From TrEMBL, chain A:
Pfam family, one: Coatomer_E
Keywords: Cytoplasm, Cytoplasmic vesicle, ER-Golgi transport, Golgi apparatus, Membrane, Protein transport, Transport
A GO term for molecular function: structural molecule activity
Species name: Rhizodiscina lignyota
Name this polypeptide is given: Coatomer subunit epsilon
UniProt topology in membrane: Peripheral membrane protein
Function in brief: The coatomer is a cytosolic protein complex that binds to dilysine motifs and reversibly associates with Golgi non-clathrin-coated vesicles, which further mediate biosynthetic protein transport from the ER, via the Golgi up to the trans Golgi network. The coatomer complex is required for budding from Golgi membranes, and is essential for the retrograde Golgi-to-ER transport of dilysine-tagged proteins.
Alphabetized Gene3D superfamilies for the sequence: Tetratricopeptide repeat domain
Main location: membrane
UniProtKB/TrEMBL annotation, chain B:
Gene Ontology terms describing biological process: endoplasmic reticulum to Golgi vesicle-mediated transport; intra-Golgi vesicle-mediated transport; intracellular protein transport; retrograde vesicle-mediated transport, Golgi to endoplasmic reticulum
High-level lineage: Eukaryota, Fungi, Dikarya, Ascomycota, Pezizomycotina
Alphabetical list of Gene3D superfamilies matching this protein: 1.25.40.470, YVTN repeat-like/Quinoprotein amine dehydrogenase
Name of the protein: Coatomer subunit alpha
Domain of life: Eukaryota
Residue stretches making up the Coatomer alpha subunit C-terminal domain: 802-1173
């Protein structure tokens, strides 16, 4: 039986992880799990730590783990190192090649697929990542990743196809809903509202609330043009974690839209302080340069 | 139906004949008491009695126009009476047995009579008419003749002469009647025959005989408008005969009662037959036209059995498409029609031959009533299409449903539940099977029942257009069910329900015999309109109800759907719709108010009511205290205040409670309220009031509340309760007081034995001043609806306040005291570089805006790229991140060259274009693109969101800028208006209509920048002084000129007033009396401020004495000119100039090619196509 399915032992742990409730994942009592599920649970807990930027801790835990030579934990290790490098703003080529190597040797392991796929995609090697992930056999984690990579490549059609296929056999699984919402946020129109419902349901139930789902809700509302509601959702997220980079970057966007120039500026500065490596910052800086460069093409003449 | 109105019991013995008058509220009766009585059915009284007959009176009839009554009697005579002067005017003798029946001809002066002497006689009464309708001058003989009217005249003729004697019956004749239009007579006799006779001017003869009755035939008549004869007899049957073929069409037998008489309704298709035990009212044929609706088309079968189509949208009736003459039997109209749009075929059933159906294809074009060529037919009581190529046929006799294909071969057979009487379409692949007591939803594929609902006697099923609901119509009930046969609601009607159809909004409209009514899903129903004739509804659209009348003609009836739409909106809580209805229609009235109240929407009802009492009730009910207080004040009745106080207390609104107690002069409660709210001051005041009122109990209470021991002792002393005073003093340790009391009462301390007392109790002191605010314990109910209404009211209120320009502000320009008169507008000058822009303005920019990012194989283009592709607006290109093309566009559209000032705007737009949705852990967030048309999904139409719409600019920068103008903060103002120009320069508006708004805003902002810049330049020159005598002559002249130019830009009138006022004062102070005079004149003419006008008049008076300028300045108030925004000198019309292509500000032509001073972006005089703000 699929351990992640509704009846499986890992379903809660898995849901916690994908609802971005990483603390719950780490605190999850794994002692009652059957032996076959211990390793996947371990992997999820380590991933949660990495997601919470407790990379060093995760690395040391791996090195002292009895199963450290399993491909699963090797993959986690690669992810941890990648995450570390990413935060430090270092080049990711080394991590990517390590991931590629592991994927070559243990490409059938689902954790290897998912984690190496993440690393490869994060390093900008989308095609390779898709190749690794393509070997999955009914892993929703892998499908979610594939959907995201397609979306990053602006292949809405492929992403939608993938999500719809998963919908057919996994039905109402949380991850399918979330992945569909990602697609919906690109499609727009009525899909905005559908995506909003998914995020809102997660964000407003105390048992499933997380910063990430609140941000999701806020973003959906922003796209729907419901700005005061989006602001309220962001504020809710701010109360949970004021320094979340995704929160900050979306605050910048929303404040700009609302014409709150000073607030937008403050949020931007805070983001630059807390997460200087954040991609949007680089994007904005690049655009500033572009602007200046483009200005040079014109030579205005002023009245003396 | 069939209610007894009244009984008229004055005849002695049986009443045999009766007739209603055609126009007057009269009827006549004749009976076995030999009497003829005329009655009024309004007063329900017998008006008079006509005596004369000597035996039973058999029949009585009114003449259709003359005031005559015709009677026939067993005394063998027929008599004519005038019911106006109540006299017998003619007696006709001739029959030699009982005359059983005599009737007037409907048009001519003829009478026909039947008698047991076996003859039928036709009488000519034209002589009688002549005699009674020619009031010419009368001779004595005439009068004599008249007096003996019923005597034969000198030639032996009477007024009525026998014209024909018709012999043919072998026994007595019981009844005879004229045909309404043709020269035909029908008679019925004891020889069991019905005979038809024809007559001409000169003779009459027997045409034919209808044989069939096997007992005496009592009565017969011609059908009022069809070629039929009806007869009734003692054989207990009613028979219908074909007039042309004289064959029996139909017969009806009653078990035990012999029929004696039959009558036809003059208009409606109804007949009445009297028998041994009562009267039977019946119709000959089904009047409901068979019809089916498909989309905008109604297919129906006319009375001639022609199939026609009616188009609702075009309101056109097609010519006949088919003739179904051969279907069923003649005189039997088809029962149902089912339409199959895919095959353009119809399935028609007829009850003839114990039920049959025909499947016919409709011709492509309606070319007249052709006989169908290819007809499939079979036996069955009901037949409906259930799929494009299948139909179901139900046969009641053998209780079987056959599913057939279009070639009429059975593909499946179903055994319906026992007692099934009818079948209807039940949604895709399903049937609704009707039994006497229930409805069954039956799945044809699975051959099983899906649901069953107990409903009695369903006759018709009407599906809603969305197929989600159906209405089951019984004789007196409407049951609404869902498509899965769940009952939604049911209602009962006392009047028979005829038909129903669904409104698009889900309201069922149904018709009874005389009303169109509606019902909502929740069972609320009401009358929509009354009907004069019964109709069969087929469709509702807007205010039109389409129906078929009984003649199978499509009709459109107008209805007012407001009421049910309102109720529907209420049920759906669609407040916008409700508001709209309230605004656009006159839907006010007691009924709607009580409806709202009953349904629990008092707050909405409140909006409709004017009457204070009702308003008060409603306000209390919905807890709207404000309104309640307002109304209570208007009405000012103690009972209302009482109720208000209770309600307010429940709300915790103690301020209202306080007021009501005050109104009610409820001092005790008031004191207690103050105690509870801790309002000590007022409590003290209450104590004083109590003292004034001399109310000791109240005083005591207040003193207790206040813990005012002295007051209490004082009070006890005043009312001579010394023991209480003493013990109070003692227990509070007030020994001095004790002594006083003892002295006053003449006791000593040891004479008094006291019980032991503990510590005196004191009421707690208030810690928090809770009386300052209400305690909102119960939220006031205010619906969205109410808010919407209030919102509207606020919107109206806002307008007048926006133009506030108060006195203190007005005076400021007079004394420009602040020293911050630095001008920065002219100092923007940067190193001027060679102007070589020409080649950039090339049309090649058109080429390719798209900036496809180099992506890996397999990647698509992002939405941002689409934006740039979809839009020629610069702002959209910025949002897409394509700054270069955006600049090219701006350059082309408005000649923009200096982009530096736009940088914040570029950043803002780009920043607002994307959101970041966190997705999988470890990967960067997903970028999504914010659209300004969120409901759009067509990738060729999506467009980015651009921050700052017209409205936000109007309420933001524009207002701030104008305020800066008023507050004399011109530096801030210039900056604000420039920012506004930049925001507008790179923007996108929501509608085509906003383009002109945006352009007006650009113009306004530019004029303000110009005006403010001129004034700032003047202040720089004069260093903010009013006195400029110390300046050089040039500067003097220049500053006077600038002050004058400040009045030129097109600003708001109040701001122009400011400029004029400032210029006038400045000129006046500097002895420019002529200029000052002209400004004063303009001010008086155009000024918006009374105070300024006043001082303008004074200055005018002063200046007029000596209208001369000391310095000659270049300002001609009468000339048309613009101000050059660079040099601040006039550009007279006609002289060469150049303008900024963006904001339209003018410059002397020498400035052409430089950057505009106002917007700081566009190049003066550059070729430009005009700004694009809307796709």
């Amino acid at each position: 039986m699929d351990p992640y399915s509704a009846e499986g032992e890992l379903v809660n742990l898995h849901n916690y992880f994908h609802q971005a409730q990483y603390a719950q994942v780490i605190d999850f009592d794994t002692s009652a799990l059957s032996s076959s599920n211990l390793l996947p649970a371990r992997v999820l807990q380590l991933r949660a730590k990495i997601a919470l930027s407790q990379v060093d801790e995760a690395l040391s835990e791996i090195s002292s783990d009895a199963n450290k030579s399993t491909p699963d934990l090797k993959a986690v290790q690669i992810l941890a190192q990648y995450s570390k490098a990413q935060h430090a703003g270092k080049p990711l080529d080394g991590n990517a090649s390590a991931a590629e190597e592991l994927a070559k040797s243990d490409g059938d392991n689902v954790n290897v697929q998912v984690l190496c796929g993440t690393v490869l995609a994060g390093a900008g090697m989308a095609e390779e990542a898709l190749q690794v992930l393509g070997k999955h056999q009914g892993s929703l984690d892998a499908i979610a990743l594939i959907v995201q990579i397609h979306l990053q490549q602006n292949r809405l059609d492929l992403a939608n196809k993938e999500a719809q296929q998963a919908r057919k056999w996994a039905q109402d699984n949380l991850l399918v809903n979330i992945a569909e919402s990602w697609v919906g946020m690109r499609q727009g129109g009525e899909k905005y509202q559908a995506a909003y419902y998914v995020f809102e349901e997660l964000a407003q139930a105390p048992a499933t609330q997380s910063v990430q789902s609140l941000i999701g809700q806020a973003v959906a509302e922003l796209h729907l043009g419901r700005l005061p509601e989006a602001e309220a959702a962001l504020q809710q997220a701010r109360d949970l974690d004021a320094e979340n980079p995704d929160l900050l970057v979306n605050s910048v966007v929303l404040d700009t839209i609302l014409g709150k120039v000073d607030e937008a500026k403050a949020a931007k500065e805070k983001l630059a302080k807390v997460h200087p490596e954040y991609q949007a910052l680089a994007d904005w800086a690049k655009k500033k340069e572009e602007f200046e460069k483009a200005c040079e093409r014109y030579t205005p003449k002023f009245d003396p | 139906m069939g209610t007894l109105i009244d009984r008229f019991e004055e005849h002695d013995g049986p009443v045999r004949g009766i007739d209603f008058h055609k126009t007057q509220p009269l009827f006549v009766s004749g009976g076995d008491d030999y009497k003829i009585k005329v009655w009024s059915y309004q007063t329900r009284r017998c008006l008079f009695t006509l005596n004369g007959h000597l035996d039973y009176v058999r029949t009585v009839f009114f003449h259709h126009e003359l005031p005559w009554i015709l009677s026939s009697s067993d005394d063998q005579t027929i008599r004519i009476w005038n019911w106006q002067n109540r006299s017998l005017i003619c007696t006709m003798t001739g029959h030699n047995h009982y005359t059983m029946c005599a009737q007037f001809h409907p048009k001519e002066d003829l009478i026909v009579s039947a008698s047991l002497d076996q003859s039928v006689r036709v009488w000519d009464i034209s002589g009688l008419r002549k005699k009674h309708s020619a009031p010419t001058s009368m001779t004595f003989e005439d009068q004599m003749a008249r007096a003996n009217a019923n005597q034969a005249d000198m030639f032996g003729n009477t007024d009525a002469v026998v014209k024909f004697v018709l012999e043919g019956h072998d026994r007595g004749v019981n009844w005879v009647a004229f045909h309404p239009t043709l020269p035909l007579i029908v008679s019925a006799g004891d020889d069991r025959l019905v005979k038809l006779w024809r007559m001409s001017e000169t003779k009459a003869w027997e045409v034919d005989t209808c044989r069939g009755h096997f007992q005496n035939v009592s009565a017969c008549l011609f059908h009022p408008h069809q070629d039929l004869i009806l007869s009734v007899g003692e054989d207990k049957t009613v028979r219908v005969w074909d007039l042309n073929k004289r064959t029996s069409v139909q017969s009806f037998k009653r078990e035990n009662d012999r029929f004696w008489v039959i009558a036809a309704h003059p208009e409606i298709n109804l007949f009445a037959a009297g028998h041994d035990n009562g009267v039977m009212v019946f119709k000959l044929e089904r009047e409901r036209p068979a019809s089916a609706v498909y989309q905008n088309q109604l297919f129906y079968i006319t009375k001639e059995k022609h199939v026609r189509m009616y188009d609702f949208a075009k309101n056109v009736e097609s010519p006949s498409m088919l003739s179904l003459k051969k279907l069923g039997a003649p005189w039997t109209p088809p029962r149902t029609l089912s339409y199959n749009p895919a095959e353009r075929a119809i399935l028609v059933t007829s009850p003839a031959d114990s039920g049959c159906y025909e499947l016919v294809s409709l011709p492509r074009d309606a070319s007249g009533a052709v006989e169908p060529t290819d007809t499939k037919r079979g036996q069955g009581n009901s037949a409906v299409f259930v799929a494009r190529n299948r139909f179901a046929v139900f046969n009641q006799a053998n209780q079987q449903i056959d599913i057939k294909d279009l070639t009429n071969s059975t593909t499946k057979t179903i055994k319906p539940p026992h007692g099934t009487t009818d079948i209807y379409f039940g949604g895709t692949g399903c049937l609704l099977l009707i039994t006497a007591t229930s409805v069954v939803l039956y799945d044809i594929q699975q051959k099983k029942q899906l649901a069953e609902l107990a409903v009695n006697g369903v006759k018709y099923v009407v599906w809603s257009s969305d197929g989600l609901h159906a209405a089951l119509l019984s004789k007196h009930n409407v049951t609404i069910v869902t498509k899965s046969l769940q009952q939604v609601s049911t209602l009962h009607e006392t009047i028979r329900i005829k038909s129903a159809t669904w409104d698009d909004a889900g309201v069922l409209l149904y018709s009874t015999l005389n009303h169109i009514k509606y019902t909502l899903m929740n069972g609320d129903n009401g009358i929509v309109r009354t009907l004069e004739h019964t109709v069969y509804l087929v469709r509702v659209k807007g205010r039109n109800v389409y129906c078929l009348d009984r003649a199978a003609k499509p009709k459109i009836l107008q209805i007012d759907p407001t009421e049910y739409r309102f109720k529907l909106a209420l049920v759906k809580r669609n407040y916008e719709e409700m508001l709209n209805i309230i605004r656009t229609s006159s839907l006010v009235g007691q009924s709607i108010i009580s409806y709202l109240q009953k349904k629990g929407y008092p707050e909405i009802a409140l909006q409709f009511v004017q009457d204070p009492q009702t308003r008060f009730e409603l306000a209390i009910e919905c807890g709207n205290l404000d309104v309640a207080v307002e109304m209570a004040k208007q009405l000012d009745r103690p009972l209302l205040w009482q109720r208000l106080s209770t309600e307010a207390l429940a709300h915790g609104n103690h301020q209202v409670v306080e007021m009501t107690y005050q109104k009610l002069r409820n001092f005790d409660k008031l004191s207690f309220l103050y105690l509870a709210t801790g309002e000590q001051d007022k409590l003290r005041r209450m104590a004083k009031i109590a003292e004034h009122r001399g109310d000791m109990t109240s005083r005591f209470q207040n003193a207790l509340y206040l813990n005012d021991v002295e007051n209490r002792i004082e009070m006890f002393k005043e009312i001579d309760l010394y023991p209480l005073a003493y013990i109070t003093a003692k227990s509070h340790g007030l020994e001095d007081q004790c002594k006083d009391i003892l002295e006053a009462s003449g006791f000593t301390e040891d004479q008094i034995s006291l019980p032991s007392v503990g510590q005196p109790l004191a009421p707690p002191k208030p810690v928090v001043p809770t009386f300052k605010a209400n305690w909102p314990t119960k939220s006031t109910s205010s619906s969205t609806f109410e808010k919407a209404l209030l919102g509207e009211v606020e919107g109206l209120d806002e307008a007048p306040t926006a133009n506030g320009y108060d006195e203190s502000d007005l005076l400021e320009p007079d004394v420009p005291k602040a020293a911050n008169g630095e001008l920065d507008i002219g100092e923007e000058d940067e190193d001027a570089e060679g102007w070589d822009m020409g080649d950039d303005v090339d049309a090649e920019v058109e080429g390719d805006f798209v900036n496809v990012e180099t992506a890996e194989a397999g990647a698509g283009s992002s939405e941002a790229d689409l934006w740039a592709r979809n839009s020629p607006i610069a702002a959209d290109h910025i949002a897409a991140g394509s700054f270069e093309t955006a600049m090219q566009l701006l350059n082309r559209q408005i000649g923009a060259v200096n982009f530096k000032p736009l940088q914040p705007r570029f950043e803002e737009i780009y920043q607002a274009s994307k959101t970041y949705l966190p997705a999988s852990a470890g990967l960067p967030p997903l970028v999504n693109y914010v659209r300004r048309n969120p409901s759009e999904t067509d990738s060729r139409k999506v467009l980015p969101f651009i921050p700052r719409d017209i409205e936000s600019i109007t309420v933001g920068e524009l207002q701030a800028g104008k305020t800066a103008m008023q507050k004399n903060k011109l530096e801030d103002g210039v900056q604000l208006f420039k920012k506004m120009l930049h925001i507008l320069m790179v923007n996108a508006v929501a509608s085509a209509g906003e383009i002109s708004q945006a352009k007006a805003l650009i113009h306004t902002a530019a004029q303000y920048v110009l005006g403010m810049a001129i004034e700032l330049e003047r202040r720089r020159l004069t260093k903010n002084a009013q006195d400029i005598s110390s300046l050089s002559d040039d500067d003097k002249k220049r500053s006077l000129e600038l002050s004058a130019y400040f009045t030129v830009p097109e600003m708001e009138p109040s701001h122009v007033t400011l400029a004029l006022f400032s210029a006038m004062n400045f000129a006046h102070k500097n002895k420019q009396l002529s200029s000052a005079l002209s400004f004063a004149n303009s001010l008086i003419e155009k000024g918006t401020n009374a105070k300024f006008k006043e001082s303008a008049r004074k200055i005018k008076a002063v200046c007029e004495r000596n209208p001369n300028d000391t310095v000659d300045i270049e300002f001609d108030q009468f000339a048309e000119f613009d101000i050059c925004a660079a040099s601040y000198t006039p550009i007279y019309s006609g002289s060469p100039s150049s303008a900024c292509p963006f904001d339209g500000v003018k410059y002397h032509s020498k400035y052409k090619g430089t950057v505009c001073k106002v917007c700081e972006v566009a190049q003066i005089g550059a070729p430009a196509s005009g700004i694009r703000l809307f796709v």
